[in-house]
Fold this protein.
Amino acid sequence: VFKMATKPRWRKYALVLCLVSSASRALAFSQLNSFGPRGLRPVTFPCQRNSAAHQTLAENFRISSFKRVSVGCYGRKESAFSKDEYAYSYDELSTDDIDDSASEDNPSQPQGTSAPYYVEASALVASGNSRLHQHFEHLRRRPFFRYFAVDLLSSCGYMPTVETPCTMEKCEITPADDVSPDLRKRDESEHSFQLDGWVRWDMPGDFTEYYDLIKEPERFTEYQGQRIWKFIHERICFQLRLEDFENAWKNDFNRFISGMHSAVSVHVVDGMPEDQRLAEYRRRLRDQKDAVQNLHFGYMLLLCAIHQATPRLTECGYMGDGAAILPAMKAICFDSLLSDPVVQRAASALRGHAQSRKAKIWKARLRTRDLLMIMNCVQCNLCRLHGKVTALGVATCLQVMIGHEGRGGGVAELHRIEVAALITVAAKFSHAIERIKHWEAQDLAAARP
């Protein structure tokens, strides 16, 4: 326009127009909440995260909001990324993310979980777990459930790391030398998996070793894993539109991951000196928003999966060890807690979304696979071992409970390592709940005058 102006006064108006246009473009770019490969300066979106402008920016530039929602990610306050992190994630906004088959007027759609439900469910699980805990403890000690082949030499593909051996003696673990040839042969034969499935694991091979989870229990090693948990909560957990009715399933997925974090924290605290445990329980669990409730919620999802897999779990021969395993397994599978409507409701949002017309459950499947792979970034061998087993148990739970269409599936095709991970992780959650009950009693006694 400036070049086309023939008279000086027209050029004056054209110059003003150009300056206004340039200022508008600069202001628009200042609203971008991302730094990509070119290192744009990160600034936050406007406050209304669901405003039309916010959604348009997110859709056009395919980036995630920096606003952090605390649901399922306890202890994580709203914050911005630092410059050494990445802004891109699976959780990108698009118009087809909205499942318009669900609405407030459609009661057939899952309502998700609410605060009153949590209170009722937590009390039910805490009391009912007392019956199941001893059976889980018995099962996890049987050979079928205690041996896992894990690759501790895999490199980290998610963040820069220094591949140095662990210098802390507490981190070191010793491979098991008493694994039966039959178990090795079975694991080698059961190597198939769905390419778009929930589950991945380390295959037996030249770079994997078998480890005994009873001889190498989860414990306090002094390893600082904040960087890994930060990645899990901010990158693997869902972040956008969590307050929307249609996304109740995303909240419940996040709660499951948060419950996994709580279970790990319990085992860490339980391995500390006795005089430190109560204070660390308060700091890591009691004072973290929804930490204990999410542990209960994750345990209910595991019980839902076990309930759905009952025909397989109660009819398996367990490689000749059925006489020692089946009584405890049946006591768990046929316990009234597993079929209780309160427990079964925990899975309703995830199952309901997977069955809906515009299901996006594939986003959760991607995340469970990443959950296993991020464990390769853990620099403590013991922590990596238990992290991989726990991630496998979480993924198996979702595979059994949801499958590809929300109705579960593949129970008859579960491999030995998947069954072992499911029961082992349920035992971890069960143990964590019992320890929290113990610390809650101590905390209450300490508060009395």
The two ends are 81 Å apart (CA to CA). The longest helix spans residues 416-447. Strands lie at 147-150, 209-212. The chain has a mean pLDDT of 78.
